[in-house]
Amino acid sequence: MSIKIFESANFAENVTDLILDLINDTLEKKTTCYFALSGGSTPGELYKLLSSVSKVELVDWKNVVFFLGDERFVPLEDKRSNYNMFCNTFLSNISANFLPKVFPINVNASNIDVAAKEYSELIKEQMNAKDSLPVFDIMLLGLGEDGHTASLFPNDPAVYETKKICIGVKHPTDGTQRVSLTSSVICNARNLIFLSKGKAKASIVKEVIEGDAYPITYPSRIFVPVADKTTWCLDTESSSLLSK
Ligand code: 6PG
Predict the structure, then answer these.
(1) Ligand 1 centre and the CA of 29: distance in Å?
(2) Cα–Cα distance between 208 and 82 in angstroms, integer?
(3) Rounded CA gap, 182 and 179, in Å?
(4) Which is the closest atom of ligand 1 to the Cα of 195?
């Protein structure tokens, strides 16, 4: 496991450069980089920077294929939609000749389980993973204050789903329905990149990185068996309680 700590003011810039390097390292080895996007507020500034004039030409985006690591079952134009956030922060800033492929979930599916199954089939088809778990090159993940990641929430049996690629879940407090990649797919990625910023995350960052709770308590701890391919990108505030 690698822990990278950045000054808060330079967090987005540093993590963006790390992600750009990872995409280009991937594209040196293979023709397509499969990238699972995180939702939430932290990655928004990264997506903006990735599509900024100074950075956007550093990657041949036509060879990057984006999926949502998790998504809310709301209309794509809804401000809660992670796809909508990615459109507003990244896609709307780059010209047509740079456009990567981005696959939203089908928010018009009859229900969340149908949406999850359809997204699983789409991922299998696009990533030639008919008979095996898909292997994302980059799995970008956030960390909730309750220890969730993607839409795998504490005390939800979905945390231990290993057969499915995507699963339909319900947010424990606001009740929104969501589609999430499962822990087996998340841990099957070549590179897991966790992002966490700000003082409010300091306590959960310490629990998840240095504690010994089971993933049912803190789902972000699914990284432990694959710590060798996991990078934690923190700022000085969110890392402030870690043992030096
Ligand atoms: C989502 C995310 C979720 C998020 C964390 C952290 O759809 O909400 O995927 O897992 O990454 O809740 O969110 P912040 O970056 O807003 O703290």
Answers:
(1) 30
(2) 24
(3) 9
(4) 15
Q: Which of 70, 139, 232 to mutate to test the pocket of ligand 1 (most atoms within 8 A of CB)?
A: 70
Atom 8, ligand 1: residue with shortest CA distance: 40
- Give residue-wise pLDDT tens across range 61-72: 999 999 999 999
**191-196 β-sheet, strand order:** 2-6, 230-235, 191-196, 138-141, 33-37, 64-68, 101-103
Nearest CA to ligand 1 atom 13: 40
Please give the Cα distance from 158 to 219 (Å, whole number): 10
Separation between Cα atoms, residue 147 and residue 236, nearest integer Å: 19
The pLDDT tens digits of the residues spanning 119-145 come to 999 999 999 998 899 999 999 999 999
The structure tokens 């928004």 sit at 44
Kindly indicate the confidence band of residue 95, based on its pLDDT and cuts at 50, 70 and 90.
Answer: confident
Rounded Cα distance, 13 and 144, in Å: 22
Q: Return the residue whose CA atom lies nearest to atom 2 of ligand 1.
A: 39
Give the predicted TM-score (pTM) of the model.
0.97
Place of tokens 């987005």: 12
β-partners of residue 167 are: 180
For residue 187, count other CB atoms closer than 10 A to its CB.
19
| Residues whose beta carbon lies within 6 Å of some atom of ligand 1 | 38-42, 70, 82, 142-144, 148-150
Q: Rounded to the nearest whole angstrom, what is the distance from the C-alpha of residue 82 to the centroid of ligand 1?
A: 9
CA neighbours closer than 13 Å in the CB half-sphere of residue 221? 18
